Amino acid sequence: MDSIQILEKLIAFPTVSRDSNLDLIGYVSDLLAAQGIACQIISSADGHKANLFATIGPTDAAGVMLSGHTDVVPIDGQDWTLPPFEMTARDGKLYGRGAADMKGFVACALAACLKASKIPLQTPLHLALSYDEEVGCIGVRSLIDMLRAAPLRPLLCIVGEPTSMHVATGHKGKLAARAICRGREGHSALAPLALNAIHLGCDFVAALRGEQDRLAVDGARDGDYDIAYTTVHVGKMNAGVALNIVPNLCQLDFEIRNIAADNPDEILERLRAEAARIAAAASAIAPEAAVDIEITNTYPGLDTPANSQAVAFVKSLTGANDTIKVAFGTEGGLFSRDLGTPTIVCGPGSMAQGHRPDEFVSVEQMRRCDDMLDNLLRLLSDHQFHAA
Ligand SMILES: [Zn+2]
Fold first, then answer.
1. Ligand 1 centre distance from Cα of residue 82 (Å)
2. 203 is catalytic
3. Handedness of CA 310, 316, 318, 320 (dihedral sign)
4. Which of 53, 205, 230, 287 has the fewest Cβ atoms within 10 angstroms?
């Protein structure tokens, strides 16, 4: 089967992160088993989802790992003109949820595994498929734990998130958190006697914006990003029951997306100090005033040196002569930090199409990815080859 035939199968599994991916994992393990490739399945705690890891070639040597996530974002509220969970091929484009992010790459990686099973590899090829990437790189962590415990770590990892086949060496890290603002409820006619939690929340949003202004003006810079500095953003505010009740609770979900030069924990400490200041000022009205911050998710940034051997190697596979950094996060930061494996992001399609209605990957991009992986297989079967 070629990559596009496999992509058609993968799109037909509606693996939205909130739902199970086990049907897709079952399909992949059957596909590989038919070529004699054994898979390790690493189940989630509740057994509804799983990661998959497979090695083709020698098992006593470290190899090159192809990494992808199997989950996709929901289609809720999106205006699709084509069926999201059925591949439509039209005018050189392949449409369907996940076509770009990132079943296109997973399909190319699987096609490469099938080819690899028919040639004598000197250096192994590893396949790592995860779940729950789209909700904060959750699933891959148990796969990484397994790899950490294994005697050999991969030499190199290619994360196939859509980069239009550019070689990406970095992305920002992310810290997601919730601020829980507590006031005191009361009748709105007596509002000054109560403590409005929305007011506390707005004061904290002002602190977030102050921190963003500071970072934008004085913060560290990485010119490889479209937004060259660390960003702070509030994305959700939950508060209030009725107009005539002074609300006693306001929850804010916010995030810090940091460049490598900034430590998100230090930024969060400054925000905690602001939160404490806001709560202390409000405690004159109601001693129970509080602005508590809890971290809901984090993943590290990726910053692989552009002059490293790993980067030169992947550039040689694609023919690229430059590198980029991408705005979105990937599992690559975890592979790099927790395994010490040099990691590159390179895959077919563009994130301009990811997460959108009528998502697509072009046939041309799929073929370029197939070509890159064919070049990889050629090197992995070479006696002289020493990866990265
Ligand atoms: Zn993705």
1. 21
2. no
3. positive
4. 287
Three-state SS at 158: strand
User: What's the pTM?
Assistant: 0.91
| Average pLDDT over every residue of 320-345 | 96
Distance, in Å, from the CA atom of 265 to the CA atom of 262, rounded to the nearest integer, reads 9
Has residue 309 got a pLDDT over 60?
Answer: yes
Q: How far apart are the first and last CA of the chain?
A: 30
Residue span(s) of the chain under CATH 3.40.630.10 come to 3-171+301-380
Q: Binning pLDDT at 50, 70 and 90, where does residue 383 land?
A: confident
Write down the catalytic residue from 71, 203, 359, 370.
71
Is 86 marked active-site? no
Tell me the CA–centroid distance for residue 176 and ligand 1, in Å: 18
Q: What is the pLDDT of residues 158-202, one digit of tens each?
A: 999 999 999 999 999 999 999 999 999 999 999 999 999 999 999
pLDDT digits (tens, 9 = 90+) for 104-120: 999 999 999 999 999 99
Q: What's residue 384's pLDDT?
A: 72
Residue of 132, 133, 161, 211 marked catalytic: 133
Mean per-residue pLDDT over the chain, rounded: 96
- Beta strand segments in the chain, E: 39-43, 50-56, 64-69, 88-90, 93-95, 125-130, 156-159, 167-171, 173-182, 186-187, 231-239, 245-246, 249-258, 290-299, 302-303, 323-326, 343-345, 360-362
- Give the domain 3-171+301-380 fold: Aminopeptidase (3.40.630)
15-53: pLDDT as tens digits: 999 999 999 999 999 999 999 999 999 999 999 999 999
CB 159 within 8 A of CB 329: no
Predicted pLDDT at 387: 57
Give the Å distance between the CA of 294 and the centre of ligand 1.
25
| Helix/strand/coil percentages in the chain, nearest 5 | 35, 25, 40
The second-level CATH assignment, the architecture, of 173-299 is 2-Layer Sandwich (3.30)
